[in-house]
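Human: I wish I could look at a protein chain and see how it folds. This is the protein in question:
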Amino acid sequence: MRGALRLLRFRGAADGAPRLGLEEAPGGDLVDLSAAEPELPRSMREFLEIGPRGLALAQRALESGRHRVPRATAQLLAPVGDPEKVICVGLNYHDHCQEQGAKVPKEPLIFSKFPSAITGPFDDIVHPQDTSELDWEVELAAVIGKRGRHIEEAAALEHVLGFTVANDVSARDWQMRRNGRQWLLGKTFDTFCPLGPAIVTKEAVADVHNLWIRCSVNGQRMQDSSTRHLIFGVPALVAWVSRFVTLVPGDILLTGTPAGVGVFRKPPVFLKRGDEVQCEIEELGTICNRVV
């Protein structure tokens, strides 16, 4: 489908500098967009600020059949490494509310991570010395492609470029008991936002509100749900957040996690060094991170 792109960033074998690219197909080889169109910026945020012209150049590079890079020779980076904002939503799956006995929110519960929490789709998650309650949260992330404020829900998807997979890694002790129960510190340690592998443009996603979403730890399935269980869908979230802040290209919106997190298991289960966490969403791809 024309307009269906899988945008990413990678580090190649040649100079080691971050480059823009595309996946030819899910899990397939890469197209070196920085080689195909050298005048384009190397920052995904700056690329998205160009708008439709940049996407047209990416489409041209994909169709050219040139500038291919074997996937095995590239290190995939977070598709957006320098967003202005990382916006998160709590309690946004019906099954996640049920597992903790929480009421379904009447309005979206918004918090944030600092952009410095972002790490690559296959990079390590660093277990901080300061927590003993490290937890996983697979999430659908929407990537903003068009600037807007006070966006109407009916027009909200016009402002979304596409979607990617995120892990909202959480230190539950800091989230739930420390720091006055403000969530920020427990959510924003370095490496607490693995992201990727690619931004899949919305044209390539049949129905973003009907995708299976899963997380496994050391091969054991921990979360297994569907985005149809979202309480507030992507358009409602974009409209709500834009009441308060201007959304700009490259902003990341994590839409919440389904049931199956560690803290609400009986007994609770937390990540330890050496664990491997795999998060996957239908049509979007898989990220896999080792805890160190």
